[in-house]
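Thread: "does anyone have the structure for this chain?"

Original post by V.I.:
We have the sequence but no experimental structure in hand. Need at least a predicted one for the grant figures.
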Amino acid sequence: MARMIELGRGESLALLASVPMGRIGFTQRALPVIRPVSHLVDGDAVVIRTHGGSGLLSTTGVDPVVVYEADQISPQTHTGWSVMVTGPATRITAPAEVARYRQLLVPWIDIDMDQIVRVCADLVTGYRLTGTRA
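Reply from O.Q.:
Generated one for you, tokens below.
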């Protein structure tokens, strides 16, 4: 039986940075929505690209609070890890930052992903599942 061990912030962000994709969760028309996206970790933030018509960008006035999650769990051994980052999602508009992230973060689907969004890691939760018996 696997055991769940809580991870610290630094290890959690390092694990998140080790994989190219995850899922972003946000609210659209008062309902929860989860979308797969590619990402990169930059300091204490997760950065993604999205398209202009994205539901994530449809809110007005206030940066929405979102959750970003990625994991790597083996279905055979039931071991691995899971990390969640919760915080406000802010559209990046500074031309130098936009250009930098467009070079670093290549879209994986055939849609014009012209918008860059930074999720501030206000809350980071990570767990490792180990094969060690309790």
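V.I.: this helps a lot. The chain has a mean pLDDT of 88.
O.Q.: and Residues 12 and 116 are 23 Å apart (CA to CA).
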